[in-house]
Amino acid sequence: MSTTTTPAQSAPGSTKESPPTMGPKTVFLIRHAESVENQRISSMFSCLGDLRSFSLPKRSDVGASLELLNFAHDVPLSEVGLQQCQTMKEKLTDCNFVASQKIELVVHSPLARAKQTCAELIGCSSDDADGEDQSQSGKVEEEEVKFEPATPNASATKADATGTTSTTTTTTTSTTTPSYPEPIQRVVNLDLLSEKTHIEWVPGNSGGFERRVASFEEWLGNQPESIVAVVGHSQFFKLMLKMPFKFNNVDVYQVKFDKDKTKLNEPVIMEHDGTADEVVLKPQWYDLKLLHSCKETPAVPNTAATTPTQEGADGANNGDNGENLL
């Protein structure tokens, strides 16, 4: 099925078509499970901690840390990540997540860790088309988005005479009606959702990442479905929502999205890994709450004026010690 929508009718006398008007959406944001890259970063921080305490780091941690030199951007889930998927899958199955939330559209990053997580937790990915590769490309022009896709042939980049770079972003959808879990109608593999690349981490070079996030919000706002599940990455979600912290692996958040909303949000206090953070979401995002987590203590929003109750949380799993970078 195509990802394009029919534009709204132009007003009488108008020479330009107006974009389609879509209402507010309920969006479920799911961070991928732990990847091999997350595991390597965790080992690196473990080595640094041992050295700071004048202890010799473990040989396994040193070996895993050195593998970071490969600069791999697209890596699969780790063994821990696969176990996280199994744990969260049981939670979502118990509450009949997909059907009870009436999810219509599933969107995931093209990176392996997100695609694997989507397949495990939601029960489908863009690879599913009755067991066959029956996909086609729907193209959305993103002007001056300097983004190198994670997989070859995922997008075509061209430069004009002035050196300005434009990227053709590819979405992959099914041309048939595969047996997705009901009531899912579409599953989209979207390049815009890729995690922040190594180049985009370089100081002064984050503009492309910011524009890519903005392009995804525009794309999302123009989709006809009103209930959407998005499987992606911590840095992407953090920037998109303007969050002070990153989601833990396989966390499932619910949030409202209205691309036309301009009223500023009130600050709320959210508990995360045993600390309380003030959160002020961007205007178009609101009513954020954590639905499911592998952590024992969920993040509970409170008004900023309320003194939050600090409950203990296990910081060893997916804390901000480096595991959450990607």
UniProtKB/TrEMBL annotation:
In terms of Pfam families, this protein maps to:
His_Phos_1
Domain of life of the organism encoding this protein: Eukaryota
Q: Which GO cellular component terms, listed alphabetically, does the Swiss-Prot or TrEMBL entry include?
A: cytoplasm
Among CDD domains, the record links this protein to: HP_PGM_like
One of the record's GO molecular function terms: phosphatase activity
> Which stretches does the entry tag as region Disordered?
1-24, 126-181, 299-326
Protein name as annotated: Phosphoglycerate mutase-like protein
Q: Name the SUPFAM superfamilies on file.
A: Phosphoglycerate mutase-like
InterPro entries attached to this UniProt entry: His_Pase_superF_clade-1 (IPR013078), His_PPase_superfam (IPR029033), PGM_Phosphatase (IPR050275)
Biased region (Polar residues) positions are 1-18
Sequence ranges of Low complexity compositional bias:
154-179
